[in-house]
Amino acid sequence: MTYAAILLDIEGTVCPISFVKEVLFPFFLKQVDALCSSQDPQVQRLLSQFEVEDVSGHIRGLVERDVKDQILKQLQGIVWENGYKDGQIKAPVYGDAIKFIKNSRVPVFIYSSGSVKAQKLLFQYVEFSDGTLDLRPLIKGYFDINTSGVKTQSDSYTKIAQDVVIKPHDMLFISDNPLELDAANSAGMQTMLAVRPGNSEVEDASKYNPITNFDQL
Ligand SMILES: CSCCC(=O)C(=O)COP(=O)(O)O
Ligand SMILES: [Mg+2]
C-alpha cells in the first residue's frame, strides 16, 4: 500500500475506547452543572444554541447516548482543558501509535468527532513515563465534525482531501469504525481497520485491512 498522507481516528485507533468512556466522559459529566451556570461568554454562547428547557439534562442525555453533537463536543473540549492542565487527565496513546507518529515519513492528520481543541489537548498531554509528551509538533493538521462534517459521510473525506490538497487515493485513513471506513472508501481513500482491545467486534473484519498495531504498516 503506498500513500502520501495518513489520516487517523482517535478513539479505538490511537487510544483505547475506555479512556474516552471511562475517563473523559465522566470527567465532563461531573462538571455539567458548573458549566450550565458558567458566566464565560463562550460557554454561554454555546449553551444558548441548545434550544431546550432542561439544558443540563439534555447535555447528560447526549453524553450517555454518545451523540456526536457539535455543540457538546466544543463544550467537552473546554471542560477537559482544565483536567489536562492541572494533571488530572493524561492521554494513554498506544506506544506503537506514538512510535508511528514520531517516525512517519508522510504527514499525519487527525480526524475525530472530538473537537479540534479536544484533539490538540489529547496530543499535548500524552502519558509518557512519569510525565507527558507533546506530540502536537508532529501532527500536520486536525479535522472534526465542525470543520469537515460527520465521519460516516463520504463528502467529509472528499472535503478533507481537498483541504489537505491531495488526491483522496493518496491518503490512508485508519479507524475502528467500519462505517467510517466505508465512507472514506467511497470518497476514494485507502483504508485500514484498527483492531484494539475493547473495540466493538467488526463483522467481516478481514475485508477492511485489519491491523492490531501500527508496526504492521
Ligand atoms: C478528541 S478526544 C475525545 C473523543 C471524543 O469525544 C469522541 O467522540 C471520539 O470520537 P472518535 O471520532 O475519535 O472515534
Ligand atoms: Mg474511533
Automatic annotation (TrEMBL):
Listed cofactors: Mg(2+)
Pathway named in the protein's UniProt entry: Amino-acid biosynthesis; L-methionine biosynthesis via salvage pathway; L-methionine from S-methyl-5-thio-alpha-D-ribose 1-phosphate: step 4/6; Amino-acid biosynthesis; L-methionine biosynthesis via salvage pathway; L-methionine from S-methyl-5-thio-alpha-D-ribose 1-phosphate: step 3/6
Family label: Belongs to the HAD-like hydrolase superfamily. MasA/MtnC family.
Sites where the protein binds Mg(2+): 9, 11, 176
Molecular function (Gene Ontology), one example: magnesium ion binding
Cofactor annotation remark: Binds 1 Mg(2+) ion per subunit.
UniProt-listed NCBIfam families: enolase-ppase (TIGR01691)
One GO CC term, this protein: cytoplasm
Any GO BP annotation: L-methionine salvage from methylthioadenosine
Binding site for substrate: 112-113, 151
Its biological purpose: Bifunctional enzyme that catalyzes the enolization of 2,3-diketo-5-methylthiopentyl-1-phosphate (DK-MTP-1-P) into the intermediate 2-hydroxy-3-keto-5-methylthiopentenyl-1-phosphate (HK-MTPenyl-1-P), which is then dephosphorylated to form the acireductone 1,2-dihydroxy-3-keto-5-methylthiopentene (DHK-MTPene).
Principal location: cytoplasm
Protein name: Enolase-phosphatase E1
Catalytic function, reaction form: 5-methylsulfanyl-2,3-dioxopentyl phosphate + H2O = 1,2-dihydroxy-5-(methylsulfanyl)pent-1-en-3-one + phosphate
Subunit text: Monomer.
EC number: 3.1.3.77
Stored InterPro entries: Enolase-ppase_E1, ENOPH1_eukaryotes, HAD-like_sf, HAD_sf
Gene3D superfamilies: 1.10.720.60, HAD superfamily/HAD-like
Gene that this polypeptide is encoded by: UTR4
Organism field: Lachancea quebecensis
